[in-house]
Design brief:
The protein contains 6 helices and no strands. It is mainly α. The protein has a single domain, classed as Globin-like, CATH 1.10.490. Helix 2 crosses helix 3, helix 2 crosses helix 5 and helix 5 packs antiparallel against helix 6.
Length: about 140
């Protein structure tokens, strides 16, 4: 499935009124289903919830601005690598993101919406993983 910007934006509009509560639910889901990733995060998750919520908003706002979106995701990928995030962590994050959006979107959530968010997350995770890998490669010396 390809990304359907209309479905992404309409489902996010349904989720948006719940604000940062959404990010809290996401982390609860992530840590409950993947307790091994908890150590990658600060003890107090409040600021991280706010950053996640802001990143989701930026993702949706820039969904059709490929250049801006890729830049945001590459920066996030490099930063997450610095926090210890590994490629094998990304599927768990994606599953928790989808579960969270499904939980809050209500009637705006359909199988097509889920497939579109899964397609978005595939782009997000691939871009972040690739930028993290590129950042960790040694630079050639002449």
């Amino acid at each position: 499935m390809t990304v359907n910007p209309i479905l992404i934006k309409s489902s996010f509009s349904a989720v948006e009124p719940h604000g940062p509560e959404v990010a809290g639910w996401f982390y609860d889901h992530l840590f409950t289903h993947n307790p091994g990733v908890r150590s990658l995060f600060a003890e107090h998750i409040g600021p991280q919830r706010d950053r996640l919520w802001a990143a989701l908003g930026a993702l949706v706002a820039n969904l059709e601005n490929t250049e801006a979106l890729v830049g945001i995701l590459q920066n996030l990928g490099r930063r997450h690598a610095g926090y210890g995030a590994l490629p094998e962590h990304y599927p768990a994050v994606g599953a928790s993101l989808i579960a969270t959006l499904r939980h809050y979107a209500g009637d705006a959530w359909t199988p097509e919406t889920e497939a579109s968010w899964a397609a978005v997350y595939e782009v997000v995770s691939t871009t972040m993983i690739d930028s993290a890998a590129a950042a960790s490669e040694p630079t050639p010396t002449g």
